[in-house]
Amino acid sequence: MKTYKDFHVGILTLQGDFEKHQRQVRSLGAVPEAVRLPGDLIGLDALIIPGGESSTMSVLIDRFALRAPLLEFARTHPVYGTCAGMILLARKIEDNISGVEPLALIDIDVRRNGYGRQVFSFETDIEVTLENGTKTVRGFFIRAPKITRVGEGVGVLAEYQARPVLVRQNNILASSFHSELNDDLTVLKYFVDILL
Ligand code: GLN
């Protein structure tokens, strides 16, 4: 049986919803590690950028001198961004009034709060197509960003209302929705398996 016990999965813990990711990483049998400073990236196998507030996280990334180390880490390791994390991984943010500076690690454009401010949150079943077939996962959309453009090199692994909501380009994975709010480890397992 596959074991994840030697996998150290970093979670950016500058701000936002990182505890649920830590819990899921632990449930998978891997080791969650908090990332706040550049040195925290040393020795990690993968990194998750959680949901939260992308404008705040963008400022904190620069305040903690994390931008260059994050870009360097992402050249050779898997990185998964959920919700605000996806915004930070995107190439471009539409109507970027808050001046979020994305890392441009995946060739998508996004619109913050693209699923509507009035419907602050909803959850729905999402069909995800992974290497070993199609599975249904519960997606939690919390002031979620909408993907408005997908570049040629980006694979769409799931859609909601004919829009991509889970996308991958090489070692970078991003979802509009939160996948960490229940005990379903499907997306996390898929992400960690990029390492294998
Ligand atoms: N609306 C938030 C942002 O733009 C994202 C919300 C979330 O991560 N749940 O950063």
Strand order of the largest sheet: 2-1-3-4-12-11-10
Strand content: 35-45%
Distance between the termini: 14 Å
Q: Work out the helicity level.
A: 10-25%
Query: Count of DSSP helices?
Result: 5
Query: The CATH topology, please?
Result: Rossmann fold
Which H/E pattern describes the elements? EHEEHHEHEEEEEEEEH
Would you give an account of this structure?
This protein has 196 residues and is α/β, with parallel strands linked by helices. It has a single domain, classed as Class I glutamine amidotransferase (GATase) domain (Rossmann fold, 3-Layer(aba) Sandwich). The protein contains 5 helices and 12 strands. The chain has helices spanning 19-28, 54-63, 67-76, 84-89, 186-193; strands at 8-12, 31-35, 46-49, 79-82, 90-93, 106-111, 121-130, 133-142, 146-150, 155-160, 163-169, 172-175. The strands form 3 sheets. It has a 7-stranded mixed β-sheet. A 3-stranded mixed β-sheet has the order 5-6-9. It is globular. The structure holds glutamine.
